[in-house]
Design a protein that fits this description.
mainly alpha; Arp2/3 complex 21 kDa subunit ARPC3; 23 helices; 68% helix; elongated
């Protein structure tokens, strides 16, 4: 409150602006909720209680206490599995809540179907076809990756088998195989139609397995002449309908789950890559040079990500927006300078550096204002790390040295000349924290440096890429990112190949050379 009143007094005196820039702030309470041990224990306790409720209620059970103890043992194993093999999911409470919430939802659906079958509302022959075996594996595979998709298929099958009145090994096999099929067909989901295809294959798998185990007909294979073909039709429709319906349901709830649990799928990233985004359309008008620079960086970053196994879609989207802060003062950045006029010629180096450095903070402000993805905002903050604006820093040191020399002539003391503070010429950081952020950091520097090449021969491009990457490594900008030396070598080769393809020039034929000479002579004559 005191800071607010003080700021208002400064605004009245004209010493401060009434507007405040949006910043990314670390909230300790949010951090505790996201990664603290207490919410994690609460998620585990709620799932254990829910699992017990499903086992002990809703119809007769064979040795329910024994089943519950075995299910708790499987639960403990699942926690250990997440802790050892998926630490990112284990230490992120929102991911844990998603995992066990979806699993509990699938188990509750199975229990509900069993209750309806016990009361006679569902034909027992139809029951195996109505169970959504692939629900949890599909959600996990698309949102959290194929490894957690397989994890979901295994544990959901085990717990589902124990929900049956008698432990059902046929259910276990059908559920496990259909879950694996769902994961196999959603390894790289870039369109929602791929989910429907996965649901269709799950339906085929369930139908075939049910036929093999004698649950279709139920005598489709052993005694086809005694088969109830009407029931076969209904079972077939149920198997395919539930498979496709599960996929449609997952496709529909994905945006809700992404928003609630802070996860972004490749589908959403592709939707974010639309160049008709208001910020990108505004950039084409206000900072066209920056817009084309961003497209070039996106091409470099996407190719580099594919080379090292990072996410190319994330790299492309983040590269589109990484320099949106330049739209505030576009004319002060080289790619937007028109007519050879350099506005920095009339500014002190410290002021020029302040304008250059501010594009990161302005970009974060625009990103938060336009509700860009958190990872995009992180890339905006990190793509320069804490690097030095070397050109203006050297110019400032040169001017300071000239001032000291002039001061000696005028008998001024050396301390009267203000020292050049290096921190005033450094970006605020932090350094890149993810592979995608590190890739864009390098791609941005390489693309900017490549503009100085007059004749981009393969050797010159190779030397340029190597020099830029080596300088970034010497500055320590990649020390906090997961990029390895092997990744950086692959990135260097990818950048060289992509740059050569982007910068290739048409062969100059004699007629073209004559036209160019005439144009050059005309320009000299009229100059």
């Amino acid at each position: 409150m005191r800071k607010f009143l003080h700021r208002q007094q400064l605004v009245k005196k004209g010493l401060a602006c009434g507007k405040s820039r949006r910043t990314v702030e670390d909230n300790p309470w949010h951090e505790r909720l996201a990664c603290g041990w207490l919410p994690r224990v609460l998620v585990f306790a709620l799932f254990a209680v829910g699992l017990g409720f499903l086992i002990f209620t809703g119809g007769p059970q064979e040795e329910p206490l024994k089943k519950y103890l075995i299910c708790l043992l499987v639960f403990a194993i699942s926690i250990a599995q997440l802790w050892v093999n998926h630490p990112q999911a284990f230490y992120r409470n929102s991911s844990l809540a998603l995992i066990y919430g979806i699993l509990l939802t699938q188990l509750a659906t199975i229990k509900g179907l069993l209750v309806l079958a016990d009361t006679g509302r569902i034909d027992l022959q139809l029951l195996p076809m109505l169970i959504p075996y692939a629900f949890a594996p599909l959600v996990f595979s698309v949102l959290l990756g194929r490894h957690l998709g397989l994890f979901g298929a295994v544990v959901a099958s085990l717990w589902g088998a124990f929900l049956m009145p008698v432990i059902d090994t046929v259910f276990l096999v059908i559920s496990l195989i259909s879950g694996v099929v769902a994961v196999l067909f959603t390894l790289q989901v870039r369109r929602r139609g791929q989910l429907i295809r996965a649901g269709l294959y799950v339906g085929i798998g369930v139908w075939l397995l049910a036929a093999i185990f004698g649950q279709i007909g139920p005598r489709l294979i052993t005694e086809p002449q005694l088969t109830d073909w009407g029931m076969v039709v209904w079972q077939t429709l149920a198997a395919f309908g539930v498979g496709v319906g599960t996929a449609i349901l997952v496709s529909g709830i994905l945006p809700v789950l992404e928003h609630i649990f802070g996860i972004t799928t490749d589908i959403s990233w592709l939707e974010s890559a639309d160049l008709n985004h208001p910020l990108l359309k505004r950039m084409t008008l206000e900072a066209p040079g920056t817009y084309h620079h961003s497209l070039a960086v996106a091409n470099l970053a996407e190719a580099g990500a594919e080379a090292i196994g990072a996410n190319p879609t994330i790299c492309r989207v983040c590269a589109y927006f990484h320099d949106i802060g330049k739209m505030v003062k576009p004319e002060y950045f080289t790619e937007n300078m028109a007519g050879g006029v350099n506005p920095h010629d009339d500014l002190a180096p410290s002021m020029s550096a302040l304008i250059i450095l501010s594009h990161v903070k302005e970009g974060v402000d625009l990103g938060l204002k336009n509700k860009l993805n958190d990872l995009v905002v992180d890339v905006i903050r990190e793509h320069h790390g804490n690097s030095l604006v070397r050109f203006f820093h050297e110019r400032a040191k040169g001017q300071a040295e000239d001032a000291r020399l002039g001061g000696k002539i005028m008998n001024l003391r050396a301390e009267d000349v203000p020292a050049v503070q290096e921190e005033n010429f450094r970006y605020p950081g932090p350094n890149p924290q993810s592979k995608e952020s590190g890739i864009i950091c390098l791609a941005d520097a390489v693309e900017s440096a490549s503009r100085s090449l007059k004749r981009p021969t393969p050797q010159r491009v190779e030397d340029l890429v190597g020099e830029v990457i080596e300088r970034k490594m010497d500055e320590g900008l990649l020390g906090e990112s997961p990029l390895t030396l092997a990744d950086i070598r692959k990135l260097s080769a990818s950048f060289r190949f992509t740059l050569l393809n982007m910068m290739h020039s048409r062969i100059a034929y004699p007629e073209d050379e004559e036209k160019q000479d005439k144009a050059a002579n005309l320009a000299k004559a009229t100059a």
